[in-house]
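Question thread 4412

I'm putting together a teaching handout and wanted feedback from people who do this every day. The idea is simple: show students a protein as raw sequence, then show them the structure tokens that encode its fold, then repeat with a second protein so they can compare. Below is the first pair exactly as I plan to print it.
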Amino acid sequence: MRPIVLGLLASFFFSSTFILNQAMKLSGGNWMYSASLRFLFMLPLLLAIVLLRRGLRPLLSDMKRRPLPWFGWSFIGFGVMYTPTCIAAQYEPGWLIAGTWQVTVVAGLLLAPLFYRVSQTPDGPVKVRERIQGRSLAVSSLVLVGAATMQFSHANGFAARDLLLGVVPVLIGAFAYPLGNRKMMALCEGRLDAYQRVLGMTIGSTPLWIVLAVAGYSQDGLPSPAQAGQALIVAVSSGVIATVLFFAATDMARGSAGKLAAVEATQSGEVIFAATGELLLLPVPVPPALSWVGMFIVIAGLTLHSLRTGLQQRAAAASSSPSGSEEVPKRSARSAAMTAGDGEIR
């Protein structure tokens, strides 16, 4: 029960991204500051965590050996992920962005052919291109149905341009996030832990955040104290607290594929937390009934996807274990958590 509680708490803190981005928009804050300040504030926080874990030197050494992949995939995984999300917040409420964002699960499945796995053959290890899992994609398509339902309920009375600028950026970010994160995981090959990798990607994307901060200053001057404070809250709650809670939950569940899948499913709570938080904290209208239907369809799709992933891991572990045990190896469980949920930073 404890891993589930921690997973739900993580999704609660992750949802702050969507709520506070909306708050910054309503207060007239420049979206460039909303995007850049969050990561600029995260940098010293993550640096302190990695220093305490004595992981800074190997990270910097790895980045020095391969700077182009680090900066390139960090730009995609963090920059192309978060910048469009902040743009979308100018045109749609946070709860709708949170629901649409969950299509990242489907995006991760569709991106599978861009990655390889090592397969053992009589002639030695061979790289095999991953394939799109049709059954998992069919189950996860419920997320698309739910997101489309939410967008449809929101479409009435809104200009097509606003809908386009609210949907397309989120979809771009939803594909960039698993692409950048998984490419970086492959690049690190297990040499660095998740905290080191997140810090490295934050460092690698910093040039973009500096450019956006300078552009925001040229437009509006310095950010207001309120916007700076809200960005700091997002950095702490979503970038640090939620990350630590999610990793703790996956660590507790790493010996059981079923428990791990249940922890991943808790991340669907972001949709409800974002909607509830906006209604309680911000002057926004109550989502129409059809939107709530769409939210629950999204949650159902994410839950079924996680449960199916758990069953697949359990079957694979049982078939590979000489004793037929259902225990999931530690490294396999951690890898599954990162690739299925990518619960590092939102």
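The second pair follows. I'd like the answer to focus on this one:
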Amino acid sequence: MTTERLDQPRELRRTLRPHYDPEAFGRLSERIARFLGTGRFIVWMTVFVTVWVVWNMGAPQHLRFDPYPFIFLTLMLSLQASYAAPLILLAQNRQSDRDRIQYEQDRESAERNQAEIEYLTREIAGLRLALGEVATRDYLRAELAQLLEELRERR
């Protein structure tokens, strides 16, 4: 068992497997999935299929590359769908992970806010109790007015 030192960079390992950055691949899949969910994609796909069908029905016989049942077009659309579905699922999983992290942060923030509100509520209650024991200006005026009235009566 070898222990890796955390203050040293990792040694590069040579492998036969191709290296890819999962984060970059995830970002790319999200961009593709975002594009697949737009009206622009539907318009471009409609234009593509229409041009394909019109070309293979209206072009001279020697320039047609996919005759009437359009088997190659079906193959191309199936291939596109077989790649689109996993990319969309990957993008949804990444969004789900981001949402989960955001919910956790929101929950922690709400707990902190609740603790602060409870603290402030206790402080306000303590101030109210303390104010009940402190002589207010109106109370002092009333007492002084009463003393003044008593002094006048004694004279």
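Top answer:
Good format. For the second protein you could add a caption like this: Residues 22-154 form one domain. The chain has one domain: 22-154.
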